[in-house]
Design brief:
Layout (H helix, E strand, L loop, with lengths): L10 E9 L3 H12 L3 E11 L13 E7 L2
Parallel strand pairs: 1-2, 2-3
Length: about 70
């Protein structure tokens, strides 16, 4: 919801289902940063390697549980 708050939270782990181009995760990182929240790690269920989304997240440690080479 638009009125959701992370009162008192300063550090979070960003969790998403798919890392493709990195656009969605990068936007989420920007929004969290604007709110004064530090993302200490980004975790994805699936990373689509040829789309190189991880490169957009180079300032945050990033992990994926599965990697797709296609």
């Amino acid at each position: 919801p638009r009125d959701a708050r992370l009162n008192g939270v300063q550090r979070v782990v960003l969790i998403d289902d798919v890392l493709a181009t990195g656009g969605t995760a990068s936007a989420a990182l920007d929004l969290l940063s604007q709110a004064g929240i530090s993302v200490v790690h980004a975790l994805f269920l699936l990373e689509i390697l040829p789309l190189a989304g991880r490169e957009k997240l180079s300032n945050v440690p990033t992990s994926s549980l599965f990697e797709a080479p296609w």
